[in-house]
Design a protein that fits this description.
The complex is a heterotetramer. Chain A is an all-beta fold. Chain A has one domain: Sandwich (Immunoglobulin-like). Helices cover 0% and strands 50% of the residues of chain A. Chain A has a four-stranded antiparallel β-sheet, with no helix packed on it. Chain A has a three-stranded antiparallel β-sheet with strand order 1-2-5, with no helix packed on it. Chain A is elongated and about 55 Å long. By secondary structure, chain B is α+β, with helices and mostly antiparallel strands. Chain B has one domain: Immunoglobulin-like, CATH 2.60.40. Chain B is 21% helix and 36% strand. Chain B contains three helices and nine strands, in the order αααβββββββββ. Chain C contains ten helices and one strand. In chain C, helix 9 packs across helix 10. Chain D is mainly alpha-helical. Chain D is globular, with a radius of gyration of 20 Å. Chain D has three domains: 39 residues, no CATH class; 93 residues, Orthogonal Bundle (Cytochrome Bc1 Complex, Chain D, domain 2), CATH 1.10.760.10; 115 residues, Cytochrome c-like domain (Cytochrome Bc1 Complex, Chain D, domain 2), CATH 1.10.760. In chain D, the strands form three sheets. Chain D has a three-stranded mixed β-sheet with strand order 6-5-8. Chain D has a two-stranded antiparallel sheet with strand order 1-2. Classes of the chains: A mainly beta, B alpha+beta, C mainly alpha, D mainly alpha. Chains in contact: A-B, A-D, B-C, B-D, C-D. Chains A and B meet through strand 3, strand 4, strand 5, strand 6 and strand 7 of A and helix 1, strand 4, strand 6 and strand 7 of B. Strand 1 of chain C pairs antiparallel with strand 7 of chain D.
């Protein structure tokens, strides 16, 4: 199973700043192994986030996003104690969801 | 105080519950594989069914002038336009230029930061796709350099 | 001037005992050698022989560790023996292609245990030197080589006045210790890191008036 | 903390769109500094730190116990502040050990892992990857503390001197020593600044940064791998995990760094 994400969600005024680190290889599909055989692409392709259960973010990623991806976005209205959930799903069908409480 | 491990454990439970209930958001979206596999800037727009974008001061892109390493280049795209449907991030000379697309949601600022790989020095584009299909871009040149011993 | 005076005093004070003792090749401290042998293992093309020091490396390491400069005698001996061992181009031709020289200067590969054995080595030049103006990712461990030939007045590599500079540059690339006993620069020719053909490309990069280095 | 970072990025957006002329005068090093600043927020080392904490508290190994009784120098289970006092002499092993080799000792004695197998496991694989994650978490628990490696024991003193000799030892096909790159102030290799590890400030900067997340390859590196790769680039043979040379160099650099605050886990090129 994939390693957990690190989600930091912090209230700033009426907004919530969300910063997410995901543990993923993000293999581009462009590289070759030591024997010259191509290493197949393996990357997150869908990312979504909810704020207290309501979807606030939905994105599609290609293999061009860096390894161990970082994502930052700002929820317009929220407060400490709210819940932020982030989910990713990769091209092998593996997925991971983690939750953070807004501080 | 809650330890990190406890929080994580609980996240796992939450994930399982959501999965079980089929409530995971984004599941309905069909991943635009063709666009992400397109080999040129133009082909990416074709695959997305979008016109080539025009420059706009109301689309903003923050990226470093020089990236010490092309493996990780921080990029923030933003827009002050109203009626933006989604935001695209592209690195012109990458083998597949399209990096990411974010569906704009009224609950979130139109400002997304992520990090992209860059194979070589080139222009990076942030593109705002409007509800009416028009596209606007901001562009920035990023130089990719070699850092350490080079081995 | 000052340095020479000091050395003279040293020699007078210590008599003839210093010189013969220091010119002998003796192994570095045994404890240090034991640690090295126990701490490393051969891997890929990097065998345990890589840990051995020749006379020059041993004396320079000892000088570095003690914080005292090498004695003038040892320095002169290293310079002379290094100079004598320089192999000049077998065909008398010093130059190649500056474009290939630039490629070599960019290339930092070769000789590590992860490098493919038998593959061509790079020159590592940009790791330590500024060379062409367009490459901003250059190191500063060595002096800038931008305008190397131009600053030395080379407008024609076949001119008589260019000859001493050409010889010096070849010698420096072959074995920098011929001029600076404890130079930090690798001995590219002496240690067979680069071939004569490769050194000629670097010569062109540095000295050819058409090379981007001299623009 | 985060508020400041956010307002700074906002400012950057404004500055970059409106102030092209000023921008053109920036030097390459200014730009590199800006690039590094952009990466400070969101260091993926956090992922390894979290994993390390988890591993510490997990019952693992043939004996199915946690590492919570591991003595890293300040008594069983003490993690806070141990990193700034390592490497140090341990009476049970009668050896000077650094954080990573000491963690392996605990994995062997408490959890029943086979130490030689782990020692020979390539970096980043299997239990070696776990040692790196553990070291990342342990180091993070000393963040901001000043280095104060002990030098009371004769073995600690011997290793300091041995480390100094190794630091200046020129060999390999290219005649490099550690000092070739790390013996002078204000030098760089390509665009990478090289800390002068013979000075207090430089040693603190270099030694205090690891474990660090390597941007260039997306890997988390502990000091053992940092030194192993320095030696690889020096064209030396393979520096083995936990061997005396690496420990001695760590003692030499760590003692030189006395009083400087650790920033580990950090992010590096």
């Amino acid at each position: 199973m994939a390693d957990p994400m690190r989600i930091r969600a912090q209230a700033a005024g009426s907004k919530i700043n969300v910063r997410v680190l995901m543990s993923h290889e993000m293999e581009s599909g462009q590289r070759k192994d030591v024997n010259g055989a191509p290493i197949p692409a393996w990357h997150i392709q869908e990312v979504s986030a909810t704020h207290n259960g309501v979807e606030v973010l939905n994105a599609e990623w290609g293999p061009g996003v860096s390894k161990n991806p970082y994502l930052q976005f700002t929820v317009k209205n929220g407060k400490a104690g709210d819940k932020i959930n982030v989910t990713w799903k990769d091209n092998k069908g593996e997925s991971r969801t983690d939750e953070a409480t807004v501080s | 105080m809650q330890t990190r491990r406890e929080v994580l454990k609980r996240s796992g439970v939450v994930a399982a519950l959501l999965l079980g209930a089929g409530l995971l958001p984004g599941a309905a979206l069909a991943y635009q594989k063709n666009a992400f596999e397109a080999k040129s800037f133009e082909d990416a727009f074709k695959a997305l069914g979008l016109p080539m974008p025009v420059e706009s001061a109301e689309v903003m892109l923050t990226a470093p002038d020089i990236a010490e390493n092309g493996a990780v280049v921080p990029m923030t795209m933003a827009s002050s336009l109203s009626g933006v449907k989604k935001m695209l991030l592209l690195v012109e000379k990458n083998p597949s230029p399209l990096i990411a697309q974010f569906m704009v949601n009224a609950a979130v600022d139109i400002q997304y930061q992520t990090r992209a790989k860059m194979g070589e020095s080139c222009d990076v584009y942030a593109v705002a796709v409007m509800a009416d299909g028009k596209t606007f871009f901001a562009r920035k040149e990023v130089k990719v350099t070699l850092g350490g011993c080079g081995g | 001037m000052k340095k020479i005076t000091t050395t003279v005093i040293c020699i007078c004070a210590l008599g003839g005992m210093v010189l013969p003792a220091m010119s002998q090749s003796e192994p570095a401290d045994a404890a240090l050698q034991n640690t090295l042998n126990a701490s490393f293992r051969a891997e890929g093309q990097a065998g345990m022989d890589r840990l051995l020091q020749d006379d020059a490396n041993r004396l320079c390491s000892q000088a570095d560790a003690s914080g005292k400069a090498l004695s003038d005698e040892d320095a002169e001996r290293i310079r002379q023996s290094s100079f004598k061992a320089i192999a000049w181009p077998t065909d008398g031709q010093f130059f190649g292609d500056y474009k290939l020289g630039e490629k070599l200067a960019q290339d930092g590969r070769g000789k590590t245990w992860s490098d493919k054995p038998g593959s061509e080595n790079g020159g590592n030049c940009y790791n330590c030197h500024q060379i062409s103006k367009t490459e901003i990712a250059y190191g500063t461990l060595g002096p800038s080589l931008y305008n190397y030939g131009k600053l030395r007045g080379i407008s024609d590599v076949n001119s008589v006045t260019a000859k001493p500079i050409i010889d010096y540059t070849w010698g420096k690339l072959w074995n920098p210790r011929a001029y600076n006993a404890c130079s930090s620069m690798p001995r590219f020719g002496h240690n067979s890191l680069l071939t004569q053909a490769q050194l000629k490309h670097l010569m062109s990069l540095l000295l050819d008036p058409q090379s981007p280095v001299n623009q | 903390m985060s508020t400041a970072i956010f307002s700074r990025s906002a400012w950057l957006v404004v500055a970059m769109c409106g102030a092209g002329a000023v921008w053109a005068q920036k030097t390459a090093s200014d730009s590199i500094a800006e690039y590094r600043a952009m990466l400070q927020d969101g260091n993926p080392a956090d992922l390894f730190e979290a994993k390390g904490e988890d591993l510490w508290k997990q019952a693992r190994g043939p004996k199915k116990v946690t590492l919570e009784q591991c003595d890293l120098g300040k008594g069983p289970g003490v993690v806070n502040g141990v990193w700034v006092e390592l490497p140090r002499y341990f009476t049970d092993t009668q050896q000077v050990q650094d954080l990573e080799s000491r963690l392996l000792t605990c994995m062997e004695t408490l959890q029943g892992f086979d130490a030689p197998t782990i020692r020979n496991t390539p970096y980043g694989k299997g239990e070696q990857a776990n040692i790196t994650a553990l070291a990342t978490w342990v180091a993070s628990q000393s963040k901001g503390m000043a280095f104060k490696l002990p030098q009371a024991h004769a073995e600690e003193k011997r290793l300091f001197e041995l480390g100094r000799q190794l630091f200046y030892y020129r060999a390999g096909s290219h005649d490099f020593s550690c000092a070739t790159c790390h013996g002078q102030d204000n030098k760089r290799i390509r665009l990478q600044d090289l800390p002068n590890l013979t000075t207090n400030a430089g040693a603190g900067l270099g030694f205090g940064a690891w474990p660090a997340y390597r941007v260039s390859n997306g890997q988390m590196w502990g000091m053992q791998l940092r030194l192993n790769d320095c030696y690889r680039q020096q064209r030396f043979p393979y520096a083995q995990f936990g061997a005396e040379a690496g420990i001695a160099l760590s003692v030499f650099i760590g003692v030189t760094a006395r009083g400087v605050e650790t920033t580990a886990p950090s992010i590096r090129r």
